[in-house]
Write a structure and sequence with these properties.
The protein contains 15 helices and 13 strands. By secondary structure, it is an alpha+beta fold. Among the domains are: 1-67 and 430-495, no CATH class; 222-326, no CATH class. The strands form 2 sheets. Strands 1, 2, 3, 4, 5, 6, 7, 10, 11, 12 and 13 form an 11-stranded mixed β-sheet that branches. β12 and β13 (305-311) form a beta hairpin. α12 (375-409) crosses α13. The longest helix has 35 residues, at 375-409. The chain starts with a helix and ends in a 42-residue tail after the last helix.
Length: 495
Amino acid sequence: MLKFISEILLSFSSCFSRTAAFEYFVILVTGFMVRSDSLGVTSVIRDLALNPKVYPCLIHFFHASSWEWDTIFYQWLKTAARHAPLYRISGRTVLIGDGTKRAVDGTYMPCTKKMVQESESASKQAFTHCHFFGAVGVLIGNLTKIFCMPLSIQIHDGDKAICGWKGDGSVSHVVQMLRDGFRAALYFGRCLFVLDRYFLTVPMLEEWRNESRRHPDLIHVITRAKKNCTAYEQPEEYKGRGRRPVKGKAIHIHELFHSAAASFTSAELPIYGGNKEVRYLSYIYLWGQKLYQPLQFVLVEYEAAQVILVSTDLTMSVGDIIIAYACRFKIETMFRKFKQQFGGLFYHFWTKAVPKLDRYRRKNSPDPLSLVKDTAERERIIWALKATEGYVLLATLSSFLSVVLLLLHLADRFLSLCTHNAHLDSAFLTATDIFRYYNNRSSHLSLSSLLHIFHIHSDRFRPSYVRKSFPAVHCPSSFLFSTSTGAVYCPLQFQ
């Protein structure tokens, strides 16, 4: 297990221009894996028993100029494509994309947006200030369990002014999401990109057509249409004079559930954890005002639900389209575990260069970041944004090591335990449990032994105190997992 961790992390050494930066990278990734709570860098120092004086150095790492986000990200994609047990449908790797929010209470945090509070609790406010992230994940696993592993989690809204300072063009969330999918597909090969109905837009399809010209057959998109979706038949054969028609008769897709009910086909498909009976019907129509892109529309009846699925692949089987879209909910599970259990969004990077947050700013008011003119202040804001996205990237890498360790090294023992325990959620397990399991049975797993692998002998990482592990009798394997109520704490033993 340690050999696998060392192989993965050593492949990132070329991403850093300073040896010390790579050492901090190893410490942070390892700390994210073994921490017992979600208090950011503080948790890393406490659970690795590091000297508290190293805290400013770890914070400075996220702002350091010795590494670039893109360099680590592309190495991360290469590593994931090489080591992850990919789950494929129709010979294609399955990518899933969606957006998520992270409420922030910081007054001076960049890219903060006022957005609708999605909560059923009447005690919460109607609006909240948050960071809006766009995430792309890949399905991994085996016949027993399938996980959604995060690949790219970046801020997709509120950074228009910062993009202008960098000389980059600002694009919408749906376009940026598709670009992130193509970036990942360059390393994973032919992919299916599963999105929800929010992303079925003309700009998304235009971006897909442009990218597909450069990378033919690299990505096909599977999404969902709204109930009021209107498509068009193919235009009739052109005869006579005048302008050539670009579309045919308008079709209200949802009405086909009633008018073509007798044409539906029934089948059992492996979706949602079992073989479920569904009824479906497929058509190829044109969609999109002034675009008229040919799409495959799949009408699905499942239990009491009627769903319209859409695929850019006109030749893909209907069953595979339904199976692929049924996996979309895996990213929702990933979000919940990444936030609540793994603490991947528990950051707090800020700078006084950001104008103070005005919680009562009107919608049409100018972006406060656009009012920042000083070059030094702009640089500080860019560094704060880099620190935020760098923190999330390291948490993403740590979660990959956690899940892959589970699948490749401890699949039989831990998945069977998790499957038969109603109190355990197996969708997203952390390597913390693996480390604790081995630590109570072997003295070889310690911070000093791990750092020795990477030839890190600096005094700045020397533990300030020694924690003793609980006896194995007090830490049975059935309690080594993080539950929905919180992680069971079992500290590591350091030599």
